Amino acid sequence: MKILNNLAKTKFWQSVFRTKLPLSTNLDRSLVIFNSLTLHIHPVKVRLRAIKFSYTFYLGMISFFLFFVLIVTGVLLMLYYQPAIPHAYRNMKDLEYVVSNGSFLRNMHRWSAHLMVISVFLHMLRVFYKGAYKPPREFNWIIGIVLLVSTLLLSYTGYLLPYDQLSYWAVTVGTNIVQYIPVAGKEIRFLLLGGNEIGEYTLVRFYVLHCVVLPLVMILLIAFHFWRIRKDGGLL
Amino acid sequence: MKINGLKKLYAAVSIIFLLTLAISPLKNYFKDWRDIQNNFNETAEQLPQKVKPVSIGLKQIWVRDLDRIDRCVTCHLGIDNSKLETAGQPFKQHSKIYHDIEKFGCTICHEGQGLATEYEEVHLPTKFWDRPLLPKKYIQSSCGKCHINENLNSTHLLNFGKELITDLNCAGCHNIPEAEKNFVPALDGIGSKIIDSNWLVNWLKNPVKFQPDTKMPNFLLTDLEAKILTDFLLSFKSFRNGVTLEPLPEVYNKNKNKEDFITLGQTRFREARCISCHAIEGKGGKLAPDLLKIASKTNDIWIYNYLKNTKRLQPEVEMPQYGFSDEEVAAVTAYMVSEFVDWDAEEDTGSVHIPLADFYEKGLALFNKYNCSGCHQLSAKGINQNTGPDLTEIGSKKIYQIDWGKTNVTHTVYDYIENKVRIPREFGGNTRMPQYNLTKSKVEAITAYLLSLKEEKLPVNFIHKTDKKHEISLQGEVGRIFNKYACLKCHSLNNSDGAIAPDLTIVGSQLKTDWLRSYFKLPYSIRPIVEERMPNLFISKEEVEILINYFNVTLLDDSLSIPVNWIPDTKSEERGSGLFFERYGCQSCHIIKGKGGYVGPPLDKAGSRLKSGWIYNWLMNPQKYKPKTIEPRTGMPIQDALDITTFLMSLKETD
Fold first, then answer.
1. What pLDDT was estimated at residue B470?
2. Is the dihedral of CA B406, B410, B416, B419 positive or negative?
């Protein structure tokens, strides 16, 4: 205990943890909560009924957990994947046949993605039927919508990466739909494809969107989403 | 602490989750290939010959140049091990192979999914790999990917397929690389050639019925379509380039039923050896149509004109023009008209044929619909090229692009092509492709060739391409004679096409003038076992002199010289005779003095036929002049060759 106390007095400790030990007053105790990100995520007050399973069905947390699984498996998959033709499809084959537990990894990623889409949708329905989009939560509802769209986009961009017939045609159809957006449709399609037809550049663009841009947006917005829940008065 | 229901559930779920996680590594461990490798090591121990056990683990061949990774060797462990020649699959040694496995891998020839490590995925057509292992019969198609136009000895099916593609004139409707268009008679003037419109109707409906060896396919026309097309075609009475038929000569009209006139025709027909190219009831050559029923199809005036000057009516035809006199042509015509009649043909009912209304427009539409102009020329306005699909990359056709119709065909490219060639309209849709009369082996040959036409781009250093034999065009009088007698149909000259008869490139250095002169008068077969011989073309004396002069001036090999110390005396002759009969045993292949083998040409009268320089140089290095000859290169000393030459030159015609 003494060593711990001494350690807490070092400059290093104090530069990492702002709260001064030992905790003696209630202010110190509450400062621990305020100064820690992980503990801070919960609102100051949590209603007992809000913890009950039937209150939220934990849908938001399940979505977040799946997102976490997706990031972990996704990073592992990135180690085996080249966004190039024809390597992309061959990499899938390697994952399936040669990489240890490769198909497990890939299936985890795939199923988590499917489940995340489902859980995000259910989460939205739950929030809608509870009326949780009403003030003061209307902005968080908008963020939620953006998160939903990001989830779908992640799902869609990931679909091209195996570069098989299914993904090729899915992207063909998808980008053709984009083309019908008024005024800028053709330009958006061109941007997405990196050209006028699906090819190497499309693959790279979708890869960057899937692995860098969209996950970053997701992480930022999720953080903001959680913070807003707390600020707007906890779960409803 | 009390354990409540929720915690119990949590514990149970956690354990189940852990167990589920354990499945994946276990599945990884119990893969089939691991069993197979263990099995290999066990069997290897029991074998009498020493076979090294393998280390357990995935194995693969990475062919960087071809961008392929083949894991076949994970299970096929004995591929390059001669001790496992008789082992069962998958450990058997690969049969005689032409390429280094490490340099080529497996799937470049066999196809299949080389990346996979499970039996079904590797060998069979599956959802995520539509190029399954090629069946053994089509494996040659892979040779054709690199060996373009090479006609290798070991790829007979592929070569045959290529030949058939040209023979059946597939290039008439399809774009096929390296395929040439074949000669097909032009249809101009067909109305002045065909005797009976009913014949044409029946022909169009089913050509094979009239002529079993015909190359014309069956377009499965309806009765009405056949009639319209007949009326349309018979309306073309004039020939191309304003050529008109000459009337039959007096002598024909007077003598056509007289026996000795017909006999004269028959004699000329035999002397000219028409059956070298034309079969008669299936007996004879395969180069030209069967003549058995020709007189029921073609009228006498056309036959007369055609025999008199073949290229006047059909400028591209390969048939030589014989040097007959008008009377002889008339006699041959009379013989053919009296002899080659279809006795089973329906009697002409004598009713006057009334063409259908607007037959011309409808006929033209049909002519265009079935792309008749792909093969037959016809000078009429409004004829369009209406070709079929491009076959340049047919071997890589995507499975999802294929319309399978209502068939039960397995969904692979080779099954598709095979069935399409066999019954072109099997897959339904609006296909116009006609039905060919092909045997199973022909279907497979064509399939093998088409399969070799792949989309994939192979590295240039893998490609072995033999250039197409180029057409030779000879100028002037010689050119005219060569063209008239279609010499280059059978003979080759400076790498040109003909493959039936000897090469003429250096004939002037090979053969003696007197012998050539007598040979043109009466050609015979040099080799006793070869049945084909040059037909008697009745080449006129002046033309023979022009040809011989051309041979002696142009078709020479200047390098054919004989050493100056050659003294053809009796001593040399005796020594040569000894060398010929004893030292080198030439008689085992060559007939001389009535005795000897049948493999090489007889040398009885070699001295009258061959020039000494040629004999000498040939003896020194036969393969230099004919790479595929079986005559051994003995490496004999110069003196031996000179003596044998002396001996052979002494063998003159006795009379």
1. 62
2. negative
- CATH 1.20.1730.10 correct for B190-339: no
Please count the structural domains in chain A. 1
Q: Which of A90, A101, A165 sits opposite B25 (nearest CB)?
A: A101
Q: Which CATH number fits domain B570-649: 1.20.1260.10, 3.30.160.140, 1.10.760.10, 3.40.50.2000?
A: 1.10.760.10
- Residues B548, B555: Cα–Cα separation, whole Å: 10
Inter-CA distances, B559 with B202, B545, B556, B617, B641, Å: 59, 25, 9, 9, 16
Nearest by CB to residue B117, choosing from A97, A100, A164, is A97
Greatest mean pLDDT among B335-349, B433-447, B580-594: B433-447
In this prediction, residue B558 carries a pLDDT of 79
Nearest-by-Cβ selection for B116 from A93, A101, A165: A93
Of A175-184, B88-97, B458-467, give the range with the top mean pLDDT.
A175-184
Residue A47 lies in a domain: no
- Predicted pLDDT at B347: 61
For residue B279, report the phi and psi dihedrals to the nearest 5 degrees.
-85, 155
Helix axes B513-521, B541-553, angle to 10 degrees: 150
Q: Taking the alpha carbons of B24, B25, B30, B31 in that order, is the dihedral positive or negative? A: positive
pLDDT tens digits, one per residue of B499-533: 778 888 888 888 888 888 888 888 877 776 666 67
- Output DSSP code: residue A42: S
Q: What is the CATH number of the domain that holds A196?
A: 1.20.810.10
Instruction: Give the model's pLDDT for residue B346.
Output: 64
What pLDDT was estimated at residue A115? 97
Do the domains B476-553 and B570-649 sit in the same CATH topology, yes or no? yes
Range of A77's domain? 55-231
Would you kindly state where each structural domain of chain B is located, as residue ranges?
Answer: 32-133, 190-339, 476-553, 570-649
Residue A49 in domain? no
Report the chain B residue with the minimal C-alpha distance to residue A99: B28
Domain at B476-553, CATH homologous superfamily: Cytochrome c-like domain (1.10.760.10)
Residue A34 falls inside a structural domain: no
CB contacts of B127 in chain A (<8 Å) are none
d(CA A121, CA A114): 11
A54 touches chain B (CB under 8 A): no
Query: What are the C-alpha distances in Å from B444 to residues A75, B136, B138, B166, B510?
Result: 50, 11, 8, 15, 42
